[in-house]
Request: fold
Amino acid sequence: MKITVETNVAAPLDAVWKAYTNPDDIKRWNAASDDWQTTSASVDLREGGAFTSRMEAKDGSMGFDFAGTYTRIVRNERLEYAFGDRTAQVEFTPGPGTVNVRVTFDAESTHPVEQQRGGWQAILDNFARYVEGRPRG
Reply:
């Protein structure tokens, strides 16, 4: 089963793409709630390149690595990646004054679909707030 989440980001396409693919930026936005954080991130932004993000509860009670391999990259348009036996696609679609970011991913069987959708949507909403709050120039 595929799950799709999306948001509109009021920022230029280049800024949205950079924030989504830059490890320093990823560490600032990649969390579903204020009690979680991404402590490290790495990105080898090329087809066949690997990425990883270490996500941890701020109280140290749990954490996990989110890692995968890029399978298709079209700069400022699309990212596709595999993580474990699952895949995801991220589409960047410019509109008037905004960029729509849509993430479609394979659901997993451990957690309910709505919980997965809610978590991924919260991360994407956090991404939009982060990018929109950055100074431009």
The first strand starts at residue 2 and ends at 9. The beta strands are 2-9, 36-43, 50-57, 63-74, 78-83, 86-94, 99-106.
